[in-house]
Amino acid sequence: MSESKVLSVEDLHTSDAKWVKLKKTTWRDPDGKQRPWEFATRPTRASGGVDAVAILAILRSESGAFAPSTIIIEQFRPPVDRYVVELPAGLIGEGESAEETAIRELEEETGFKASNIIRTSPLLVCDPGMTNANMKLVTVDVPFPERLEMPAQKLEPGEYITARIVEISKLSAVFKEYEKKGFVIDARLSHFASGFEMAETLRQMQP
Amino acid sequence: MSESKVLSVEDLHTSDAKWVKLKKTTWRDPDGKQRPWEFATRPTRASGGVDAVAILAILRSESGAFAPSTIIIEQFRPPVDRYVVELPAGLIGEGESAEETAIRELEEETGFKASNIIRTSPLLVCDPGMTNANMKLVTVDVPFPERLEMPAQKLEPGEYITARIVEISKLSAVFKEYEKKGFVIDARLSHFASGFEMAETLRQMQP
Predict the structure, then answer these.
(1) What is the pLDDT of residues A108-153, one digit of tens each?
(2) A121-142: b or e for each residue (b if 16 or more CB lie within 10 Å)?
(3) Using a CB-CB distance cutoff of 8 angstroms, which residues of chain B are in contact with residue A184?
(4) Could you give the C-alpha distances from A51 to A94, A98, A127, in angstroms and in order?
């Protein structure tokens, strides 16, 4: 096994692209004026209208043996030519619900089996100035009677993903270590950790 | 003033696109195999290597007259044909630092002047399976001796942005109202609120 690496980048014509397409929309602004807007889109979106899910797994000790934890993944992402730290995630297949995708992808990427769905977020948009990509965040419960153990992943051939358990309250500290090693953090996961930290900060500011 | 609306969407050829391009990379996987990956990119990235900033403004009462708050914006986003709720944000100009962009965009989009920078995040990637888009989250301090007042925005022609002050601890509740009205929430802002809520939930679970 060697380091993943981008070898070359070239222009791609829309007609040759399979996984991402360019579109141009004409929209009417509040003054009634027609304007153009260019964006990228995934042709893989299933008929349910949602591209993908991310999975926030709550690893929880029923005996109090460990602090509430979650699972993050590390994988090489060719578009950014870096190893990226993200929540487990995956594209929703045709006929699949967001919850089904979440349970399937969590098990494939991390080996963990969710016992039940805690919450599915409404539809969220990922980068709405540049793409029409959308997603739902599915929070799932993964209870442990006792000790937390790392199961075996069920990766498909060609998938190279490292899964890691982290205490939820230590995410921001863990990200600092990753950054020193040259990894980058997914913006959504980073914002989750920033929100968590903000709650702690505001609580400490209270009289 | 009328509602914004998408009138039509058509395919766009890479050579005709100005604001977003398609690329194909060849990367080497950990087994040494060469693989293709398609993605979208912004040709507008400045030489600093960062596309954009989002701004988390901490509106803070020096006298304790109001709870710590932030400012969110509502704007129509043609790629998703919906009104989207986001943090204030903007593309970094050539020669501009992330912090300069943050202060400039916050004032343009909301009228608020930041008194100082609290923190600039490391580089974050926005949707690294689909695009190479990246950003930094800049947290800024906006102190008020007394009452919180909404200043006038300084929008450019063709910018239609509504700014709204929200208590940080009420973001999730406010998002539920927006969803009922047909707005969608930006995934990064939503993850921030989810992280905040998670901290509250874990605190309540503690003995």
Answers:
(1) 999 999 999 999 999 999 999 999 999 999 999 999 887 888 888 8
(2) bebbbbbbbbbbbbbbbbbbeb
(3) 122-125, 128, 134
(4) 10, 9, 13
Question: Could you tell me which chain B residue has the CA closest to the CA of A55?
Answer: B191
Query: Residue B144 is encoded by which pair of tokens?
Result: 């008020």
Distance from CA of B151 to the nearest CA of A (A): 22
B6 is a domain residue = no
> Residue B170 has what pLDDT?
98
Chain A neighbors of B141, CB-CB under 8 A:
none
Q: Which residue of A has its CA nearest to B197?
A: A196
Interface test with B, best of A8, A76, A119, A127 (most B CBs within 10 A): A127
ipTM more than 0.85? yes
Low-confidence ranges of chain B (pLDDT < 50): none
Query: A190 and B124: CB-CB below 8 Å?
Result: yes
pLDDT tens digits, one per residue of B131-152 = 999 999 999 999 998 788 888 8
3-state helix, strand, coil in chain B (%, to 5): 25, 40, 40
Q: How many domains does chain A have?
A: 1
Q: Provide the β-strand partners of residue B140.
A: B57, B117
Q: Taking CA atoms, what residue in B is nearest to A80? A: B132
pLDDT digits (tens, 9 = 90+) for A160-190: 999 999 999 999 999 999 999 999 999 999 9
Contact B4, B160 (CB under 8 A): yes
Range of the domain at A67: 47-205
In a domain, B186, yes or no: yes
Q: Looking at residue B99, what is its pLDDT?
A: 98
Q: pLDDT: is B158 or A107 the higher one?
A: A107
Chain B residues inside the 8 Å CB shell of A189: 191
Tell me which residue has tokens 């047909």.
B182
Is there a domain that residue A120 lies in?
yes
CATH number for the domain spanning A137: value is: 3.90.79.10
Angle formed at CA B80 by CA B74 and CA B86, multiple of 5 degrees: 30
Instruction: Give the pLDDT of residue B207.
Output: 59
- Is there a contact between A199 and B194 if contact means CB atoms under 8 Å apart? no
B194 CB neighbour count, 10 Å cutoff: 24
The minimal CB distance from A37 to the residues B25, B56, B79 is found for B79
Which token pair is A201? 């900060």
Residue B99 domain-assigned (yes or no): yes
